[in-house]
């Protein structure tokens, strides 16, 4: 525990505090641009840190990390452009709130939720990290298969509209995730001998096309009748009532985020989905979700931030970075002569806890800064839609390019924009497609690895304690709505299921 | 759909603002619904065929096509379910002439992506912005010209001058 | 509004006139006189954080000083680097796009995939060799395996992907030792090692630098290394050859550019990389990651790699090994 406090002492040195602030600001500004996610942003700005002390450098990089994540939340809410997979769920209610003139409320609750989630997670990390160290190791391919399947099921819960159409969208998302070279055999799948597809399709063009661009295209059609007036900007900060309403969601999101964040690979995304689905399930009025429920923003934003913090645990216990961003950060450390590994915590406690605590301080800075900045960003919505649309489109197109520096990706984002428009017209919610796409390769590769380990025997899933438990839980979640539906009430088909569920 | 309550809004997603919704958002007929089901089925069948061509392997050694084959099969089934429910489906919008601006918008973006590698992003971006502002957005000539030029300059300063992004550029 | 706009336009025009040129034309730079005239890209066919990525970042950091332009590392993971290599082959041969070419892609992957999909190193210009990296077979301590002869049952082994050195070393070893073993491919070294730590697979062959922290902490047991001689860092672990198996497999890395890059530009790049190799920071990095420098010129490296390909092809034929996942 004294190491934890020592870490705070490190962070609170004025110089480190300053670089943390700089990192958060840069991260937020760049995170607002679609395409450049936290990992890319850090990689781009890495050289800036080479002249700094290792601790200072890493604090600044960590600042960029959550600054960029919050920047992605801002675009998710304002323009329906999620920059990161873990903020896809935020789009649903965040953007609906923005449409009602409550973007400030959404962004405010996201900042508060992130802060509380991060705080809870860091306290838990300091206290229980040694005990949950083995937790992540118990998760092998069979367990990840079950988690990913659970995620796909949650997708159906999360989505708007009819269940069959949500399933169609989810399966299409899973299919899109198979495009590219197969990691098990090297075979090219659905690439049509196009080199640009060999690497698979990136998340950014899919999400920005289906959500952001599809939305803009759809609104062009409405413009025929009447220009939609931008909603009046209401109270910038969440009211006491909002906070009360979101309180439970923030608490549960913190727990879910911490637990799932411990799992390297996919933890943050799954936690945001699970937190959202849980709130929707618990709610007496699930129909509010997707139409501006404040819990629908609070839950995933809290969870993904809690997960970002607890993803330090695998690193702490195993010396293995949990995600691409962590990998880049610790690659930077290595270049600076610090070797990350299982002994990092004991050999360099100041560094380790300095970094962890800097995430906490970063959250505080983020919360303080969001007060003036949210008001600023929200003004974007005062711009007339006719003017905002081409600006958004061009930033999206160029942003898509920046992901892989590929013109092909610009074409992809346009194609997915067209698909998003058509889906909307045909009554499909693009949400399940994007979320299933995110989980697709985790699901397939875990499933195939499991079958290899089990020598083709699917009962292997049942004989392992964790995967068996997950499987039972999964069946429960899957069958619950079917059982509920047995109650004789099915007057309005398809479009009304969201309301009657 | 003309009743602006949350449940009705849910039909087309949160993005549809409440308010008067004239006939352009009218429900699609059974033909559209069947066509959607057919597209889903066809997509599934194509995926299934492509996957089987890749080789499905066996349970102990799944091939590259095993998983896509499962997904393709699932899509075919879902497409059939959609077709069976076509008459009772009421969440699709009618396709019609209201889609013309959308086509124009897609065309403008297609031109952008086609020429950006050859002449850089500046001119196509300015043209795209102008078309969207003047013709799709019905802004005045002055606003259209000023905003499209200003936007390109801002994009240049941001992406090229400040961030050093490698997007093809002329200047 | 308009006056501010005018000011901005003037700024941009000024920028354009002062040599802030576009990046469209490929004319003029062909002779290499003004090379490099913009930021360079160093492609990495593996995820950020892995060995190859770290080497790329360590080098990029040094090389940019000599070239006077930023060198951006870009990760294009997929198929042991084939995706990135194919992308490089399609890039303009002007020296602004380079790759950290993993040797296993040149001399092991071709054994696993169809000839049409294989990447041929002679289709690139090699700037310089970088370093070699040894593989080590590690076991989960729970298995009780300490030597190859301890392995007395059918096992599962993790590989870092199809057509990687990790796969070949183990396929050769288990074929020669007569052990029934099932390969489970993961995406790179970190997930593979995690699977061994968690007991998801029994053993795995990973690069020494990736496993060193875990070995030191006693979380995995080293069984054999596939090095030419015992690494100074693991004096008590025999090499595969000492244990009686013919598995001379190493990872080697080189910097390559698209075929047809002007020789002056290749030379310019080689000079920049040699300066980077000489730097203390980079040498410390090599020591820390247990890498053996192999900073040879292009033709020497090509000789090494084509030799390896022939050796491995003969071994794979001899033991009738199928490296592709489908049986």
Mean pLDDT of chain A: 81
Distance between the termini of chain B: 50 Å
Q: How many β-strand stretches of chain A?
A: 2
Instruction: Give the uncertain stretches of chain A in residue-range form.
Output: 490-501
Oligomer: heterotrimer
Spatial sequence of strands, sheet with the most strands of chain A: 1-2
Number of domains of chain B: 2
What's the helix count of chain B?
6
Number of strands of chain B: 2
The H-and-E topology of chain A, N to C, reads as: HHHHHHHHEEHHHHHHHHHHHHHHH
The share of residues in helices of chain A is over 70%
Q: What is the average of the pLDDT values of chain B?
A: 82
Query: Could you tell me the strand content of chain A as a percent range?
Result: under 5%
Helix content of chain B: 55-70%
Can you walk me through this structure?
The complex is a heterotrimer of chains A (501), B (171) and C (327). Chain A has 501 residues and is an all-alpha fold. In chain A, 73% of the residues lie in helices and 1% in strands. Chain A has helices spanning 2-11, 14-31, 38-45, 54-79, 88-99, 103-137, 141-158, 163-177, 195-198, 203-222, 240-261, 267-282, 295-310, 312-318, 324-335, 344-347, 349-378, 385-404, 407-425, 430-454, 460-463, 465-485, 497-500; strands at 180-181, 188-189. In chain A, strands 1-2 form a two-stranded antiparallel ribbon. In chain A, α4 (54-79) packs across α5 (88-99), α4 (54-79) packs parallel to α17 (349-378) and α5 (88-99) runs antiparallel to α13. Chain A is globular and about 55 Å long. Mean pLDDT of chain A is 81; it is low at 490-501. Chain B folds into 2 domains: 1-95, no CATH class; 98-162, no CATH class. In chain B, α2 (30-54) packs antiparallel against α3 and α4 (100-119) packs antiparallel against α5 (122-136). Helix content of chain B is 62%, strand content 2%. Chain B is flat and about 60 Å long. Chain B has a two-stranded antiparallel ribbon. Chain C has 327 residues and is α/β, with parallel strands linked by helices. Chain C folds into 2 domains: 32-132 and 251-316, Bordetella uptake gene, domain 1 (D-Maltodextrin-Binding Protein, domain 2, 3-Layer(aba) Sandwich), CATH 3.40.190; 135-249, Periplasmic binding protein-like II (D-Maltodextrin-Binding Protein, domain 2). Helix content of chain C is 39%, strand content 19%. Chain C contains 11 helices and 10 strands. In chain C, strands 1, 2, 3, 4, 5, 6, 7, 8, 9 and 10 form a 10-stranded mixed β-sheet that branches. The longest helix of chain C has 21 residues, at 298-318. Chain C starts with a helix and ends in a 9-residue tail after the last helix. The interface between A and B is large, with 89 and 86 residues.
């Amino acid at each position: 525990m004294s190491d934890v406090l020592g870490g705070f002492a490190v962070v609170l040195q004025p110089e480190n505090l300053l670089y943390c602030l700089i990192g958060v600001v840069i991260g937020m500004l760049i995170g607002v641009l679609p395409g450049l996610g936290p990992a890319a942003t850090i990689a781009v700005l890495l050289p800036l840190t080479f002249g700094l002390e290792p601790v200072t450098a890493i604090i600044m990089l960590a600042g960029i990390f959550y600054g960029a994540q919050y920047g992605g939340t801002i675009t998710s809410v304002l323009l329906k452009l999620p920059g990161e997979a873990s903020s896809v769920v935020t789009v649903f209610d965040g953007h609906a709130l923005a449409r009602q003139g409550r973007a400030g409320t959404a962004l405010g609750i996201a900042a508060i939720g992130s802060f509380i989630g991060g705080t809870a997670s860091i306290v838990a990390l300091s206290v229980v990290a040694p005990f949950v160290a083995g937790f992540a190791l118990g998760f092998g391919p069979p367990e990840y298969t079950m988690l990913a399947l659970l995620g796909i099921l949650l997708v159906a819960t999360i989505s708007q509209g009819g269940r069959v159409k949500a399933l169609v969208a989810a399966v299409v998302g899973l299919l899109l995730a198979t495009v590219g070279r197969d990691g098990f055999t090297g075979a090219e799948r659905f690439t049509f001998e196009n080199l640009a597809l060999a690497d698979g399709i990136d998340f950014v063009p899919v999400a920005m096309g289906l959500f952001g661009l599809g939305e803009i295209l759809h609104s062009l059609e409405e413009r025929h009748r009447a220009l939609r007036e931008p909603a009046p900007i209401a109270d910038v900060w969440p009211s006491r009532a909002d906070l009360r309403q979101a309180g439970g969601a923030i608490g549960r999101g913190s727990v879910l985020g911490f637990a799932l964040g411990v799992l390297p690979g996919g933890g943050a995304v799954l936690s945001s989905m699970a937190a959202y689905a849980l709130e929707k399930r618990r709610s007496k009025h699930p129909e509010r979700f997707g139409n501006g429920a404040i819990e629908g923003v609070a839950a995933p934003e809290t969870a993904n931030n809690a997960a970002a913090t607890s993803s330090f645990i695998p690193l702490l216990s195993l010396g293995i970075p949990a995600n691409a961003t962590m990998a880049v950060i610790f690659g930077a450390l290595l270049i600076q002569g610090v070797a990350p590994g299982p002994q990092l915590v004991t050999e360099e406690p100041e560094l380790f806890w300095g970094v962890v605590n800097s995430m906490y301080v970063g959250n505080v800075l983020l919360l303080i800064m969001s007060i003036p900045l949210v008001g600023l960003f929200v003004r974007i919505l005062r711009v007339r839609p006719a003017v905002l649309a081409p600006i958004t489109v061009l930033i999206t197109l160029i942003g898509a390019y920046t992901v892989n520096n590929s013109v092909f990706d610009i074409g992809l984002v346009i194609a997915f924009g067209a698909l998003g428009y058509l889906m909307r017209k045909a009554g499909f919610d693009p949400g399940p497609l994007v979320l299933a796409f995110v989980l697709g390769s985790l699901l397939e590769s875990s499933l195939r690895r499991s079958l290899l380990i089990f020598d083709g025997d699917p009962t292997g899933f049942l004989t392992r304690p964790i995967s068996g438990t997950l499987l039972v839980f999964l069946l429960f979640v899957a069958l619950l709505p079917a059982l509920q539906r047995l109650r004789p009430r099915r007057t309005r088909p398809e479009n009304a299921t969201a309301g009657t569920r | 759909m003309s009743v602006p309550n949350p449940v009705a809004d849910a039909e087309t997603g949160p993005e549809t603002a409440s308010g008067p919704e004239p006939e352009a958002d009218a429900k699609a007929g059974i033909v559209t619904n069947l066509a959607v089901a057919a597209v889903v089925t066809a997509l599934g069948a194509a995926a299934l065929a492509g996957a089987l061509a890749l080789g499905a392997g066996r349970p102990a050694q799944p091939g590259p096509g095993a998983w896509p084959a499962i997904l393709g099969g699932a899509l075919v089934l879902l497409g059939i379910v959609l077709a069976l429910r076509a008459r009772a489906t009421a969440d699709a919008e009618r396709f019609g002439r209201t889609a013309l601006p959308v086509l124009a918008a897609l065309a403008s973006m297609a031109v952008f992506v086609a020429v950006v590698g050859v002449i850089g992003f500046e001119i196509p971006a300015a043209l795209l912005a102008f078309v969207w502002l003047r013709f799709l957005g019905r802004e005045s000539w002055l606003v259209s010209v000023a905003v499209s030029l200003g936007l390109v300059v801002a994009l240049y300063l941001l992406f090229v001058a400040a961030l050093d992004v490698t997007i093809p550029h002329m200047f | 509004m308009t006056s501010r706009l005018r000011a901005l336009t003037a700024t941009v025009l000024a920028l354009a006139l002062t040599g802030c040129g576009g990046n469209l034309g490929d004319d003029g730079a062909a002779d290499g006189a003004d090379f490099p005239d913009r930021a360079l890209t160093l492609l990495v066919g593996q995820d950020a954080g892995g060995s190859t990525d770290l080497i790329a970042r360590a080098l990029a950091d040094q090389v940019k000083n000599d070239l006077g332009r930023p060198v951006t590392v870009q990760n294009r993971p997929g198929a042991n680097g084939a995706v990135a290599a194919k992308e490089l082959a399609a890039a303009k041969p002007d020296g602004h796009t380079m790759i950290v070419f993993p040797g296993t892609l040149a001399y092991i992957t071709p054994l696993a995939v169809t000839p049409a999909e294989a990447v041929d190193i002679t289709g690139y210009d090699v700037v310089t060799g970088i370093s070699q990296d040894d593989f080590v077979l590690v076991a989960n301590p729970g298995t009780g395996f300490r030597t190859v002869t301890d392995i007395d049952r059918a096992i599962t082994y993790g590989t870092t992907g199809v057509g990687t050195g990790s796969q070949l070393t183990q396929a050769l070893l288990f074929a020669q030792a007569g052990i029934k073993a099932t390969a489970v491919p993961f995406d790179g070294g970190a997930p593979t090692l995690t699977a061994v730590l968690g007991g998801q697979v029994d053993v795995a062959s990973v690069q020494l630098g990736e496993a060193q922290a875990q070995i030191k902490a006693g979380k995995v047991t080293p069984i054999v290394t596939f090095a030419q001689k015992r690494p100074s860092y693991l004096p008590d672990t025999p090499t595969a050859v000492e244990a009686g198996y013919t598995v001379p497999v190493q990872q080697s890395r080189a910097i390559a550019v698209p075929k047809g890059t002007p020789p002056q530009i290749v030379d310019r790049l080689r000079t920049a990389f040699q300066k980077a190799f000489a730097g203390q920071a980079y040498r410390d990095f090599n020591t820390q990651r247990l890498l053996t420098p192999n900073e040879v010129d292009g033709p020497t490296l090509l000789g090494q790699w084509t030799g390896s390909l022939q050796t491995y092809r003969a071994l794979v034929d001899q033991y009738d090994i199928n490296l592709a996942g489908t049986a």
